[in-house]
């Protein structure tokens, strides 16, 4: 286990400090941005203008998009297996909507959030039996006030053989939004994926599932009710595994559409 731990530390060092990409400067944003000059990067802070409806939409989109994604073919690692990965998730938001404009503050009035957003993650997955894997992920924007930690359990229902044409797996996951003072957000995820391996290394797969996102507003700026938002999702992906290297890509359609990419080392 010494080598996987060392590799995890090295991979974490490759993660960029900025998770959200920003639009170009040089023009006044519309609507006007909420500004806090003490910030280094756009941060989750609630403005007094935030409404219950906008908060609900933010919980639905922010929570379901950041929830722990599968990004793996429906096979377990088997007992003693270890996978260490770096990932990148990309998605689009309506940055001018109240749900995103009134939930973020910015370093200055020209420092926009941007509609094309992304953040990196590190993931560790371990096979605790031939049918069960346990995993975790973590990320943080080092210049802002948000990050996430997540935990998952994966159960291999079917494994492809000469008489079984597909592999099938079920997964449960939990995600906690970190470092944000103005809310307490949690997400529970369940999904089922099915796939078939070709040539012993290429596995396309599909799946369905759902997220249940809960957020309690804890801000001094507003007084809003807590929000519980159920979000269904469908996913499709592909994993290429050769020797100890695994490459993966996955598309998720939920409250927002997102693409996720993974480079992993498996032992």
Which CATH first-tier class would you pick?
A: Mainly Beta
The CATH topology, please? Answer: Lipocalin
The count of domains is 1
Radius of gyration: 19 Å
CATH architecture: Beta Barrel
Number of helices: 3
Structural class: mainly beta
Strand/helix succession: HEEHEHEEEEEEEEEE
Task: Summarize model confidence as the mean pLDDT.
Answer: 91
pLDDT below 50 for ≥5 consecutive residues: which ranges? 6-18
- The total beta strand count reads 13
| Largest sheet report | 10 strands, antiparallel, barrel
> Residue share in helices?
10-25%
Question: How would you sum up the global shape?
Answer: elongated
With strands numbered from the N-terminus, the spatial order across the biggest sheet is 3-5-6-7-8-9-10-11-12-13
Write a short abstract of this structure.
With about 270 residues, this protein is mainly β.
Provide the fold topology.
Elements: H1 2-13, E1 34-35, E2 43-44, H2 52-66, E3 82-92, H3 98-101, E4 104-106, E5 116-127, E6 132-140, E7 147-158, E8 167-178, E9 183-195, E10 202-217, E11 227-242, E12 245-253, E13 257-266
Using brief descriptors, characterize the structure shown:
ten-stranded antiparallel β-barrel; mainly beta; 48% strand; three-stranded mixed β-sheet; Lipocalin; elongated; 267 residues
Description:
Helix content is 12%, strand content 48%. The chain has 267 residues and is mainly beta. It has a single domain (2-22, 30-266), classed as Lipocalin (Beta Barrel). Strands 3-5-6-7-8-9-10-11-12-13 form a 10-stranded antiparallel β-barrel. It is elongated and about 60 Å long. The model is unreliable at 6-18 (pLDDT under 50).
């Amino acid at each position: 286990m010494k080598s996987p731990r060392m590799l995890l530390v090295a991979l974490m060092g490759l993660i960029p400090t900025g998770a959200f990409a920003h639009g170009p400067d040089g023009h006044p944003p519309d609507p006007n941005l909420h500004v806090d000059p003490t910030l280094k990067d756009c941060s989750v802070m609630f403005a007094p203008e935030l409404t219950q409806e906008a908060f609900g939409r933010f919980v639905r989109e922010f929570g379901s998009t950041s929830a722990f994604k599968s990004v793996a073919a429906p096979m377990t690692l088997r007992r003693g297996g270890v996978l260490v990965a770096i990932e990148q998730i990309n998605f689009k938001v309506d940055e001018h909507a109240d749900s995103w404009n009134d939930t973020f503050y910015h370093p200055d009035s020209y420092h926009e959030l941007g509609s094309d957003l992304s953040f990196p993650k590190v993931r560790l997955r371990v096979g605790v039996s031939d049918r069960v894997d346990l995993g975790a992920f973590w990320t943080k924007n080092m210049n802002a006030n948000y990050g996430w930690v997540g935990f998952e359990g994966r159960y291999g229902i079917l494994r492809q053989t000469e008489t079984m044409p597909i592999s099938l797996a079920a997964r449960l996951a939990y995600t906690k939004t970190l470092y944000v003072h103005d809310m307490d957000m949690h997400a529970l995820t369940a999904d089922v994926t099915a796939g078939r391996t070709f040539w012993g290394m290429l596995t396309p797969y599909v799946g369905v599932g759902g997220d249940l996102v809960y957020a309690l507003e804890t801000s001094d700026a507003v007084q809003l009710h807590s929000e519980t938002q159920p979000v269904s999702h469908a996913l499709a992906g592909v994993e290429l595994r050769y020797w100890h290297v695994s490459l993966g890509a996955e598309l998720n359609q939920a409250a927002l559409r997102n693409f996720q990419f993974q480079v992993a080392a498996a032992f």
